[in-house]
Write a structure and sequence with these properties.
The protein is mainly alpha-helical. The protein has 12 helices and 2 strands, in the order H-H-H-H-H-H-H-H-E-E-H-H-H-H. Helix 4 packs across helix 10 and helix 5 packs antiparallel against helix 6 (92-107). It is globular and about 50 Å long. The protein starts with a helix and ends with a helix.
Amino acid sequence: MHAKRVIAAAAAALLLGACSSQNVSNVDYDPWEGFNRGVYGFNDVTDRILLKPVARGYKAIMPTFARRGVGNFFDNLVTPRSSLNNFLQGKPGRGFSDLGRFLMNSTIGLGGLIDVASKAGLEPTDEDFGQTLAVWGAGDGPYVVLPFLGPRTFRGLVAMPFDFLADPLYHYDETSVKDKLRVLQIINLRARLLAAEGLLEESQDRYITIRESYLQNLEYEVYDGDPPMDDDFYDDFFDEDFEEADEGN
């Protein structure tokens, strides 16, 4: 999962805290909840024992500008994938914008360490093959939690091989360097998520909170920040509004 999407999903959890206070379960999109909870528990233990302490040490040792540069570098690497998926989704303007970002940051930005493209007005987009399948009409499918990789939908699971193939690091031949970069990428991402952890502290069921926030943020990404409003929301809103008006009369 792209770093910004993970952080956005964690932030959305704050808005969904009410959901976590109930025993929410929806077999329509989480029919494998028992399995998913087991994998989530494994991931959570692994994170607490290994990733989180390492991420804290990394954040304590590395100055802010260095961590920002590392994050920019890895964000830049996924820009060609995002550009390709914008073209596949019929959004050539965003596709060319991402190409411009990649070329500018990879050259003037010293290999992506400095995000000069954003300062030039080329804002990043975050498109992957899962979103492309959604635009092409594929449904989400069941929610699933993967070991180490975290939450996905079945559609995202199907798209994962294409996302890996679109990653420049996948095609880098120097295995020792590639492995070190992968480790650095994981540690840097985990360090970026430390600030968002407080949003989950009040949750009575972290699994549900993460699930709901992930799915809502995924919909937000698929619709480029403008998801359609659920008709049930309007029904519930107006029903409640009219009930309160009747009570006041």
